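step=predict obj=Lipoprotein n=138
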Amino acid sequence: MIMKSRFYVVSRAAALALLSGCAGMTQGPDAARLQSLPVVAYGQTPQTEEYVTHFAKGSDAPMAFTVQGTLLQQPQTLTGVAKMGRDLWVYRQWMSYDRQRWIKGGEGIAIKVDVQLPQWGETRPSRVVMTLDARNPQ
């Protein structure tokens, strides 16, 4: 039997989007106005204060995972690169899959983390699987 712990977390992109400005907005931003803003590829430096970040389908999505806690002598960070499976645009706390319909960042991505610890007598490493799925896909 494998010990499992399931919980939901907010992705880095969604967390940054949620923590940035426009916290008082209750409806999505005007799509026509956002169409006029410059689009900056993720990882590039914006040249203006107002812009939309684009995570392009097929582009690299660098990830860093940290394991920490009282059971460990020190934190350990593992890094890797995944590929984006679809286009994603982010503007402040809002995100879109098509630049037309904007939803709050935390509502647009379902994130599940599954932790599997070895059982008594096993020597395999622990396994952590993070699943990122689009909510309200278009």
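step=describe
The CA atoms of residues 108 and 135 lie 5 Å apart.
step=end
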